[in-house]
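Worked example

This section walks through a single chain of length 331. The input is the sequence exactly as stored; nothing has been trimmed or padded.
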Amino acid sequence: MHRLKSSNNLIYFFVFGFILFLASNRVDELRVYQGASIAVFVIAIASIILLTGYSGQVSLGHGALLAIGAYSAAVARNEFNVPVVVCFFIAVLSSALGGVLLGAAAARLTGPYLAGVTLALAIGLPSLANQFPILGGEQGLIFDVGFPPLSLGEEFTQYKWFFWISSLAALISMWLLSNILGSRYGRNWRAGRSNEVAAQLAGINTGRSKILAFTISAGVAGLAGALLSMTIGTVSPSAFPLALSFSLLTGAVLSGVTTLSGVMIGAVTLVAIPEIADVIANRIGASERITTNLPGLMVSTLLIITVLFVPHGPVEQHRSRKAKKLVQKKN
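Given that input, the structure is written out below as tokens.
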């Protein structure tokens, strides 16, 4: 049954990938860049959904894991001229290593204590990056992935290249995560989240399960970080502020932390908010200070509204309503 579902998912991802390929040739440069950003956020939000929604562990500093992947990829590219694909694998492995260390702490910490540890990491990492010259200090590092070796025509732009890379990475990541979450590992995470004592009595090593969840989540976040640095062309402390962690958490809540199905909702919202904020600021003639802080205010407001009215995300709420209607029809 799981193999059949996996095959169906693979077909869906191929179809969706083909649609994205066609769309990339019919929209302008700005939309292509936004499409690449959406793909990056899809991966980052999916990593939080795995960690929080399935494993029950809260991370308030996920942006730090993205930064670890971004810096690792940039250093490998700049210092050792590593091929781009290998750089992305290095980003995944280095962030996964950080996830192992955090997961070891997570196995002993719960609730606000774990959230506090991840928050401290997100706050302290930029200062740490400034202490090592190889990381470029406050100015950061350039992360240039270059163009493909074969010429794909004059209309093939750099942003389109970014879009293809990010979209392919997102499709592969989502396919792998959907299979992992549908496997016994996903079932173990859900069991531990629902009732840790009962899970332990059932023979599940919840400590080891938490470490595995943090490791995979961190590795996926590291890939998102490397892709994000690719789209903006640089890696610096300012590119991974604490606000990024909160934005990703908001995106996960909007998507529904207990399901991957709505991840596009959160990703599209996070990309759209700055543009909407800019339009609002121009309409009301706001000052530069208000224009700068308006996106953060909108993200915070959206998080509060979602928690109050749609706590499990729109996709999960739609499923619940559909299930209730089916029960009512049967009765």
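What to look for: The radius of gyration is 20 Å.
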